[in-house]
Structure formats: structure tokens, C-alpha cells
Specification:
With 553 residues, this protein is an alpha/beta fold. An eight-stranded parallel sheet has the order 8-15-16-17-18-19-20-21, with helices on both faces. A six-stranded mixed sheet has the order 3-2-7-22-23-24, covered by helices on one side. Helix 10 (282-285) links the parallel strand 16 (258-264) and strand 17 (291-299). Helix 2 crosses helix 8 (211-227) and helix 11 crosses helix 12 (357-372).
């Protein structure tokens, strides 16, 4: 050894894609204490070999930094997987009812049945009375609450609605929630936004979350993320139980991922109890070496499929909403500006859910006010950015606003088809303007919105960013192909750009000396295959802080 510090581990004979523009490629690197000592040629790294150094020869396999997810709901995903009924988003009403019936037979003591995810293509059918009759018929007196692919809307049986106090004459809740009714004015079981939260809160009282249960949900989700190469994520809607569960995992030495959390300011989706200033004091008590609750989350509008996204131009005419409906925001502009200033003053970054272009403009206007008051370092994210008015594209870079592009709705899919049914054609033709944002100089940061997308695998999203075609081949054609980006831009979106977006660029996001040794071993070089082959990329190993946390059997 020719250096004072010997490496714990040397990875050599690899095709290393560092995502570091100063040294984009290498063939080896050395690790000590969970950090990168040197990145370079095999001979460079060999000088750090000591008597106890472990050598991993990858025989030409590809390596890159661990992938990052700027927007998921990992706790909910874990909850679905460990504790609830699941069915595919392609399932029809009869399939769903059969699944509910089977679940009840296997869990006869369950008072509540929770299930997901039904697809947006069912919205029209669920707006009629017949599906509720079918669900009631198989429920056996149980209360049933089923969540859609946007996770903003729910389908509940009569027993669940009655438990929440929803009767034929119950008014819609404030804040945009809708109890969808049939022609006779009776609830159909379809509940938009806050109306679904009414039932979710009732269910939570009967079946409360605990820290141990939240930790189990997180652990399951992290195991899934490791298997697809994810070593950092931001939970975009953390409850107090989620924060406590992540802290508990780290206290036990089991949180082997960079976890960031958004503390909810308002909630028309999850049914959380503590919000905003009630939640903020827990920021430091739940912080740990691997958990950073450094963000807040605002839901500024809903989703287009339920006509709750806020747009500059009207929705397509409908029998229910007429021809001038533009959706709405969940709070007035002054309240939004107050929260952004309040968070900036407390050193809290903010992610804002914006499905419609009017909501996006609202946020950009408010951020401009905050920046003008001297808050230059606060991170602001616009999620999800599928619809951005062309006049606002350049403002992302000018205001230092991150474009959180999640979920992967930049290629044809069930959700995109549902949006096509309610929004003007010209908006769909420029939907998900990722290239325009990237070329303007904005940071585009990739996320899954899992379990809105049922698979958190970043490679599906990466492939779609480049081709604008469905990587799984289930839906034909391309969506706004002029907005395709390059392989380099797509990989940056899921690595170094997300590290910047999360505020962890100083120690993760690229294979750079001094940074955490977070990396993945792949079955192919992403720069050496056709873009349509990227979706089938296999993660063979995932490493976090120099420790192997996943190995494909």
C-alpha cells in the first residue's frame, strides 16, 4: 500500500458511470468508512489496497450511483403490501368484488377491509349505482374502503359510508371533496378527495396506526426500493407515525437508505391528524443520521380525472361540470404565500402538489415573493408538473424551483387516457414538458409517486423519459414525443438532480471522492443499449454506505 489509509473495499474491473461531470467515467473505486476514497483507474485504486481490503472484481459489469426517488409515499406502499388487499389497476368491478370476497373469507375477523388500486378508467362506471350494489353484496357486513390509482379518490361500500356519517342528504365536505351521487341523489360510493378522507379518518379510529406498524411498513417499502436500486427517497406526505417509524428504524440500525420526509401542511388525501404547526415541532425529535424531515407538503389542487385540478383553461364540457369549470385551489393565494414564507423562515423546504397549470402559476408567483424577501436557499418543488403553461417554463430556472416530475406520466397509460378524456387536446400534446424544462436550465428530478404508480422501479420512468412510449408495451403510441430527453438527462434526473432537490448533493448523488458509497451494479450499461431496452434493466446489487443491502438471487 502506498497511501496512509487503506480501503475497506475496492470495486474494480467495472464500467463506472459516476454522474460526476468532472469525471464521468472510471473503472474502479475504493471505499473506507462507507465513503469513497478514490475513483479512477484500476491502478489508481490499487494503491489503496491493504492487508484486510476486500476486493470485488465485477468483470466488466456496469456501476452507477444509487438511484433516487424525489416523490413517493413509501409508508402507504408498505401498508398496502403488508396489511391490505391489493389488485391490479386494470381490474374491473367484478374482479375487484371477487377479490374483496376472497379477502374477507381469509380474514373473517377484520372489521374494515382496505384495498387498492382501482384504475381511473372506472370513474364513469363507479359514478353509477350498480357497482355499489355489487360491492355491498360481497361485503358480508364488513366496511370496505378501496383507493384509486391517484390515491386522491376512494370507493366505499354502504357500511363504510354509514360509519363515517355519509347519508343520502350529507353535504359535500369543505375544501373540494365530492360525494358522487346517482341520478336519484344517492351516494354511489365514489368519493373524491376530502369526501374519501371522511371515511379514512373513521377507519383510522377503529384501526389506529402505531409506530411499530409504521416502521414495519417502511421496512417493507425500503426492501422493495433496494431491489430496484434506490438508495435515497423523499416521502411526499409523511404523517407523524411515518416520521416516528423511520426514526425507530434508524435507532435500531435498520434504516439503510437516505430518507427525507415532507410534513403535511394540509390534507385532502390521507386523513392525517397532525398538520402544519402541530407537526413541525417533531422535525428535530424524529431526525436521525439517515432521516431528514426537512420538507413540508402542500396540496394546492386535486387531480384532473376528478375535475379537481386547477387549470387556466376550462375542462372539456361535461354534464356535471358544464363548459366553464376550471377546477380550484385548496387555499387562496394569500394563504399559500403565508405558508411558503413561514416555512422559509423556519428553514423548512416545501413541496407543492400542482396538477393543473393554474396551480403551478400560483406557486411560481408565491415563490417569487419569497425569493424577493431574501430567502434564496429554501428548496421549492412543484409536483407533478404534467401541465405547465409555456409562459411559465422559464420561471422554474429563474426562481430556482425544482420540477418534481412524478409519477411517470410522460408516456401513454391508463391515467393519461383518463386525462385525455377531460382536458383539451392541445394540452395533452404538450403534456409533461420535460425537455422544455431541462433546456431552460431547470432542475428536473424524477420520482415514482409510488404507489400511485404500482412499481417504484426507476428504470421504467427513465426509459419513458427518453422514448415517450410505454416501456411495458401495454399502451401504443407516444405522448408528446418532442418532449423526450437524452439518456444523460434522464439518468441525472434520478441521481444527481434529485440529490440537489433533496439537499443532499454534498454527500450523495454521484460517485465522487468523499461522498457516501451508494451504488448499484447493473446487468447492462445504460449508455450502451437502445433506450427501449432500459426498462428491463436488472439491478444485480445495491450498496449503501459501502454495505451490500441487496443482491439478486
Amino acid at each position: 500500500m502506498t497511501h496512509a489509509q487503506a480501503a475497506d473495499l475496492i470495486v474494480t474491473n467495472a464500467v463506472v458511470r459516476t454522474m460526476d461531470s468532472a469525471k464521468p467515467s472510471a473503472e474502479a473505486f475504493a471505499i473506507a468508512g462507507g465513503k469513497l476514497l478514490v475513483v479512477g483507474s484500476a491502478s489508481d485504486v490499487a494503491a489503496y489496497r491493504g492487508a484486510s481490503t476486500r476486493i470485488v472484481d465485477l468483470d466488466g459489469q456496469a456501476v452507477m450511483p444509487g438511484l433516487m426517488d424525489v416523490h413517493n409515499h413509501h409508508g402507504i406502499a408498505g401498508l398496502h403490501n403488508v396489511f391490505e388487499l391489493t389488485f391490479p389497476d386494470t381490474a374491473g368491478v367484478d374482479e375487484i368484488c371477487a377479490a374483496v370476497k376472497g379477502y374477507i373469507a381469509e380474514h373473517p375477523d377484520a372489521e374494515w377491509v382496505y384495498g387498492s388500486i382501482w384504475g381511473s378508467q372506472l370513474l364513469g362506471e363507479l359514478s353509477t349505482s350498480e357497482p355499489l350494489k355489487k360491492l355491498d353484496a360481497v361485503s358480508g357486513g364488513k366496511k370496505v374502503l378501496l383507493t384509486d390509482d391517484s390515491h386522491h379518490n376512494r370507493f366505499a361500500n354502504t357500511a363504510a359510508m354509514r360509519a363515517a356519517g355519509i347519508q343520502d342528504d350529507t353535504p359535500n365536505p369543505p375544501g373540494g371533496g365530492v360525494i358522487v351521487r346517482d341520478q336519484d341523489g344517492r351516494p354511489t360510493g365514489l368519493l373524491f378527495e376530502g369526501a374519501g378522507v371522511m371515511v379514512a379518518k373513521t377507519a383510522a379510529k377503529a384501526d389506529p396506526m402505531t409506530t411499530d406498524k409504521a416502521a414495519a411498513c417502511s421496512a417493507d417499502a425500503i426492501k422493495t426500493m433496494h431491489a430496484v436500486g434506490v438508495t435515497a427517497f423523499l416521502d411526499a406526505g409523511a404523517t407523524l407515525h411515518t416520521l416516528n417509524g423511520l426514526k425507530e428504524l434508524d435507532d435500531r440500525g435498520e434504516l439503510k437508505i437516505w430518507a427525507s420526509s415532507c410534513m403535511l401542511i394540509n390534507d385532502h388525501v390521507f386523513g392525517a391528524e397532525q398538520l402544519g404547526n402541530e407537526l413541525f415541532p417533531h422535525r428535530e425529535t424524529t431526525r436521525s443520521s439517515h432521516h431528514r424531515p426537512d420538507f413540508a407538503k402542500i396540496f394546492l389542487d386535486g387531480v384532473p380525472m376528478s375535475y379537481t385540478g386547477a387549470f387556466l383553461q376550462p375542462y372539456l364540457p361535461s354534464e356535471t361540470h358544464g363548459c366553464a369549470h376550471k377546477g380550484h385551489t385548496t387555499m387562496p393565494y394569500d394563504e399559500l404565500e403565508h405558508w411558503l414564507l413561514h416555512c422559509a423562515d423556519k428553514g423548512i423546504n416545501v413541496k407543492v402538489h400542482c396538477c393543473g397549470d393554474a396551480a403551478v402559476r400560483f406557486v411560481l408567483d408565491a415563490v417569487a415573493k419569497v425569493r424577493a424577501q431574501g430567502y434564496k436557499d429554501t428548496l421549492f418543488h412543484v409536483a407533478h408538473g404534467q401541465f405547465v403553461n409555456p409562459d411559465d417554463i422559464k420561471r422554474f430556472r429563474e426562481l430556482g424551483v425544482v420540477a418534481d416530475i412524478s409519477p411517470a406520466l410522460w408516456y401513454p397509460s391508463i391515467i393519461v387516457e383518463a386525462m385525455e378524456a377531460v382536458r383539451p387536446k392541445e394540452e395533452i400534446e404538450r403534456m409533461a414538458p420535460n425537455r422544455s424544462l431541462a433546456e431552460s436550465g431547470a432542475i428536473i428530478s424524477g420520482g415514482s409517486d409510488w404507489p400511485v404508480m404500482p412499481d417504484p422501479n426507476p428504470w421504467i420512468g427513465i426509459a419513458g423519459l427518453i422514448t415517450r412510449a410505454d416501456p411495458l408495451g401495454q399502451h401504443p403510441g407516444q405522448l408528446a414525443p418532442d418532449e423526450a430527453i437524452t439518456v444523460q438527462q434522464a439518468l441525472e434526473a434520478y441521481t444527481i438532480n434529485t440529490a440537489r432537490a433533496l439537499g443532499i448533493e454534498s454527500f450523495s448523488g454521484s460517485l465522487t471522492v468523499g461522498k457516501s458509497a451508494d451504488f448499484v451494479v447493473l446487468d447492462r450499461d445504460p449508455y450502451g443499449v437502445a433506450p427501449d431496452k432500459l426498462a428491463s434493466t436488472v439491478v444485480k446489487e445495491t450498496w449503501f454506505e459501502g454495505e451490500k443491502v441487496y443482491s439478486k438471487a
